[in-house]
Amino acid sequence: MMPELPEVETVKRSLEGKLKGKTFAGAEVYLDKIVKDIDPVDFDQKLKGKKITGIERRGKYLIFYLTGGLAMVVHLRMTGQLLYCSPEQEKAKHTHVIFHFSDSDQLRFVDQRQFGRIHLVPVKELDNLPGLKSLGVEPLGKTFTREFFKKELRNRRTKIKPLLLDQTFVAGIGNIYADEALFRAMINPERVAATLSPRETARLYMAIKEVLQEGIENKGTSIKDYLDGEGNQGTNQNNLRVYGRHGEPCVKCGKTVEKKSIGGRSSHFCPKCQKL
Length: 276
Hints:
The chain is α+β, with helices and mostly antiparallel strands. The chain has helices at 5-19, 40-47, 146-154, 160-165, 175-184, 198-217, and strands at residues 24-29, 52-58, 61-66, 70-75, 80-85, 95-101, 106-111, 117-122, 258-262, 265-269. The protein folds into two domains: 5-128, MutM-like, N-terminal (N-terminal domain of MutM-like DNA repair proteins, Alpha-Beta Barrel); 146-269, Helicase, Ruva Protein, domain 3. It contains six helices and ten strands. Helix 1 (5-19) runs parallel beside helix 6 and helix 3 (146-154) packs across helix 6.
């Protein structure tokens, strides 16, 4: 499973207090493709002496702001992990980058499937970075209002589940939280977005915010690979009502939860609570 907004936000929060103010002593890159559009030797040289002034999350991306007008952008993708470690700590099998700090502590990028990517760019060029530049609104931000959501759904002829996964529409929602929000709002994932009534739209709007907030409060959903910056699992997997529960009874009505591919992605739903 790809870390979604709550997981990436949890990683940010678990690292922020530890890394803010630290100075890079360099970076060892063991897999060149993880570091995008820059030679690993240049990557190491450009990081040396730079101090971390802050960390921000945008959608599923982490942005490390550095002195010298630089930003390091990390996308964990499917199995990426950022782990804060002491130098004595045993190196995990799929460690591809080790960031060294002047106090000897380390930040390690671990990624079994090797889909994760790290960019180092001037802050002024962040808005031009592919993926980052096309992100939609933050679902927990001020611009994601009920009015905005209602207006956007009104003209969308696509199914609601793929729309929620569209990062250019709303940033940070993935398979888990889309399924959970739709179940909570009692909306079938195959419903065409424009057919949702004002009441259904309001329910879904609130459900999106609720499941994301709960995910953050529970420090993320750990099903396979996800760990926070300290190597700890989240607990939100214990609260899932529909995702991953196909073949089991619905927690509301007892009907068997179904799983279906919609828009190329697996979707979990209750056929009774979420009638089409």
